[in-house]
Amino acid sequence: MKKVTILFLCVLLLPLTACAPSATMPEPTVSATVPATVPEAETLAATEPVPVTVPIESETIPTIPEPVVNLTEEEQTMLLKLGMAERGKEGCTECIALVMCTVLNRVNADRFGSSVRSVILAPEQFTPVMDGTYDSAEPNQQCHDALEMVIYGWDESQGALFYEWCQGESWHSKNLHLLFQHCDVRFYD
């Protein structure tokens, strides 16, 4: 068994020397304790195992980011459905995410509901809830991508509390402060 150990170590050391790194990479440190002379076959069996140290440069293991926004499964489903009903067919992923951020901004504001459910289902606040398209909405991949963006901290909403499709003048445009326009949607506070 000790013969196998020594042979194994010899085989282990050969690839390290055969695959020497290029001049731009630091050479690995390999240390070994071996006898000065090769013992005879009889002595080889009695030789203690040879300790070998091969330090391996530690690599940084990528970490999985933690969600910034914690939502229940129900809240996620509600945001997905609203995103689909509002912008899913026509909008880009960022616009869907902005709709979701607007709902979360309302949750964090004092004058709206204190949960995603209460904000989305509040009377006369979201057209898709009023006309029934929210109930039948089937979120697409863009909606799921938008929700993932929001959960992991993407928020370009500038604190928007309202949004509307840009179709000329409206109650929003006359009574609220315009923050920005994204695609064909205006966002207000």
Number of domains: 2
- Which percent bin holds the helix content? 40-55%
CATH topology of the largest domain: Arc Repressor Mutant, subunit A
What is the topology, as strand order, of the major beta sheet?
3-5-4
What count of helical segments does DSSP give?
9
Query: What can be said about the biggest beta sheet?
Result: 3 strands, antiparallel
Mean pLDDT equals: 79
Q: Distance N terminus to C terminus?
A: 78 Å
Give me the secondary-structure category: mainly alpha
Q: How does the overall form come out from the CA principal axes? A: elongated
Structure summarized in a few sentences:
With 189 residues, the protein is mainly alpha-helical. The protein contains 9 helices and 5 strands.
Structural notes for this entry:
By secondary structure, this protein is mostly helical. The chain has two domains: 52 residues, no CATH class; 116 residues, Orthogonal Bundle (Arc Repressor Mutant, subunit A). The strands form two sheets. It has a three-stranded antiparallel beta sheet, covered by helices on one side. The protein has a two-stranded antiparallel ribbon with strand order 1-2. Helix 3 crosses helix 4. The relative contact order is 0.12.
